[in-house]
Amino acid sequence: MYPVYYESAPRRDFISVMVSKEPPEPPSKRRQSCRRVWNRLSRLQRTIICAILVVGAMSGLYIANGLMNELPDDKDTLSQRHNVFPNDNVVHVMDQRHPDKDTKANQRLHDNDDKDGEDQKLHFEQEREKKENLEREEKAKMKPKIADAVVQPEVKGQKESIVGNQEEDEGIGAAGGELEVNEEKKTKGQSQDGADAGVDVQVQVPNMEDGVGPQNAQQKAVVEAFKHAWKGYKQYAWGHDELKPISKAASDWFGLGLTIIDSLDTMWIMGLMEEFEEARRWVEKDLVLKKNVDVNLFETTIRVLGGLLSAFHLSNDGLFLEKARELGDRLMPCFNSPSKIPYSDVNLDTGKAHPPRWGPDSTTSEVTSIQLEFRELSHQTGNDKYKNAVDEVMGHIQSLPKENGLIPIFVNARSGQFRAGATITVGARGDSYYEYLLKQWLQTGKTEDKLRDEYVTAIEGMQKNLVKSTAANGLKFIGELVRGSFSPKMDHLVCFLPGTLAIGHHNGLDASHLELAKELAKTCYQMYADMPTGLSPEIAYFNINNPGKPDIEVKNADTHNLLRPETVESLFYLYRLTGDKQYRDWGWKIFQAFEKYTKVQGGGYSSIGSVKDTKNPRFRDKMESFFLGETLKYLFLLFSDDPTLLSLDKYVFNTEAHPLPIWRP
């Protein structure tokens, strides 16, 4: 119980001030007068005055501390943004953007004539550095690590032990288009065990060294092309999915900033750190995943989920992993179907999943080309629900009857069965099923041999049923089976296959795979070289009957070019694995054709309506996000003189060209 005080009568609170011309009283009397005034004040007035004095004193201390922190400090502020997981790599990246930064700081100190002031600054810097080190140590104790300060988010209700092992992997870049050479390398080979134990997951994240600028004129040209495309997107479509470069406007498909996320790892690899940081800020502040929009499971997975995971691995920035986990959770309702086959679409806000609007079936390549990304998400979060969902899909597809390992392009999400009589193709709606059979095997460190065996069987089926040669010059191509009959039609999308065959041979598969890869790559390049613009059509038909006619025929409805990456992707793999400069030469000619016929003045590149018309290729007013995320990335890698840049023994690329680390068994 609190005491209660009573007063006999209210007391008036006032301060009396008297002005007089007479001389002041002696000091002792003035002190007595002040004491009397203080005693006359009420308890409330005294409390208020004391509070004001305390607040004033604290404000003074705060301002003084702020002034001390404002002393010159040339440490890069980027590390403060990564205060959750301090990382040496991030600091080095920014140092390369400002190589003269420390020199200028030292010059300012030497120019200071006041030696005492100089010592004081150094003292404050040392104290501040000690404080930062203590903070980092405390945070390090609180969070498990992966690959030297990569944040491993806590999974509720689940403990995990993660071992990271970074390996040196040289990198290149082109910051600002300037040729900068940094011959210093650093090797990091430390690993850290998580504080908790339970799920024993080992992951090896290759650490790509910071970029050192373009190594040759061809790489520099590709970087300039990227900057030109980025300029148009930033000016006219920032935050939207894609740029319409002719109308200088934006277009949205899902409203997830597809171009930004698709481009994150490309910018990192090219060394465009200013652009990367700008994109990173957008992801942090403006990427809203809880929105009332229906998205396609496949496209969102390969572009957004894959892009976020790749950016996480290259930058060691936990923001990207957190966004990836949220997105993965919002895509999971797709797997709530009567069969093991996921629905094709889902609303990111409501979680309502459904088949495509145009029919009841899901596309086979789409439901079987999300495995790399969901498996990697489980690998990083320690939550197996993502991997289990996609593994069930693959297990079900493997259980269905096939024709020599080849699959129809439609499968029903309710019945779980292939559509009867559906086309068999390695092109649209079938392509990446075969690609992901091999790449899942590679991702796991070649431990799941059933996936490899399925892939080998499928390649044998292609060679038996789909591989044909033209009558005139013997160009090998991959056709289709339409209602059981062969069609000499080949999509440009099929041109991913030479690269996949080459990487399979690199990992121990039969030599016939590499030979077929070379033959198909030649055909894919010929689809460019035979056109007046030097650019490939979307679809080509091949002459297998009349030696007197051209090898390649293009119908009027198929003459468009969408800035696709598949051919330059295969050229990159073949050059990296064989060293044959012919593939570089072909890639350079393709790049020059893109520059000549698709570049838009003022910023951006546009798909075109006719590869046959050099005078009026007819801009389609659309720059696909994959032009920055895939086409320019593969061209940059093709022209690299460094075979260890994104080593094919350490990384596997998803079907949107986002590199993910290979797990070590």
Automatic annotation (TrEMBL):
It comes from the Eukaryota. The active site is at 299 (proton donor), 431, 538 (proton donor), 566. It holds the Pfam family Glyco_hydro_47. This is alpha-1,2-Mannosidase. It comes from Branchiostoma lanceolatum (Common lancelet). The keyword Repeat does not apply. GO terms for cellular component: endoplasmic reticulum membrane. Disulfide bonds join 495-524. Pathway: Protein modification; protein glycosylation. Residues 96-141 have a biased composition (Basic and acidic residues). Residues 96-195 are annotated as: Disordered. It catalyses: N(4)-(alpha-D-Man-(1->2)-alpha-D-Man-(1->2)-alpha-D-Man-(1->3)-[alpha-D-Man-(1->2)-alpha-D-Man-(1->3)-[alpha-D-Man-(1->2)-alpha-D-Man-(1->6)]-alpha-D-Man-(1->6)]-beta-D-Man-(1->4)-beta-D-GlcNAc-(1->4)-beta-D-GlcNAc)-L-asparaginyl-[protein] (N-glucan mannose isomer 9A1,2,3B1,2,3) + 4 H2O = N(4)-(alpha-D-Man-(1->3)-[alpha-D-Man-(1->3)-[alpha-D-Man-(1->6)]-alpha-D-Man-(1->6)]-beta-D-Man-(1->4)-beta-D-GlcNAc-(1->4)-beta-D-GlcNAc)-L-asparaginyl-[protein] (N-glucan mannose isomer 5A1,2) + 4 beta-D-mannose; N(4)-(alpha-D-Man-(1->2)-alpha-D-Man-(1->2)-alpha-D-Man-(1->3)-[alpha-D-Man-(1->3)-[alpha-D-Man-(1->2)-alpha-D-Man-(1->6)]-alpha-D-Man-(1->6)]-beta-D-Man-(1->4)-beta-D-GlcNAc-(1->4)-beta-D-GlcNAc)-L-asparaginyl-[protein] (N-glucan mannose isomer 8A1,2,3B1,3) + 3 H2O = N(4)-(alpha-D-Man-(1->3)-[alpha-D-Man-(1->3)-[alpha-D-Man-(1->6)]-alpha-D-Man-(1->6)]-beta-D-Man-(1->4)-beta-D-GlcNAc-(1->4)-beta-D-GlcNAc)-L-asparaginyl-[protein] (N-glucan mannose isomer 5A1,2) + 3 beta-D-mannose. GO terms for biological process: carbohydrate metabolic process; proteasomal protein catabolic process; response to endoplasmic reticulum stress. Its cofactor is Ca(2+). Belongs to the glycosyl hydrolase 47 family. The keyword Disulfide bond applies. It is a single-pass type II membrane protein. It is an enzyme of class 3 (hydrolase). Keywords: Calcium, Disulfide bond, Endoplasmic reticulum, Glycosidase, Hydrolase, Membrane, Metal-binding, Signal-anchor, Transmembrane, Transmembrane helix. Involved in glycoprotein quality control targeting of misfolded glycoproteins for degradation. It primarily trims a single alpha-1,2-linked mannose residue from Man(9)GlcNAc(2) to produce Man(8)GlcNAc(2), but at high enzyme concentrations, as found in the ER quality control compartment (ERQC), it further trims the carbohydrates to Man(5-6)GlcNAc(2). Its EC number is 3.2.1.-. It is found in: Endoplasmic reticulum membrane. The chain crosses the membrane at residues 48-68.
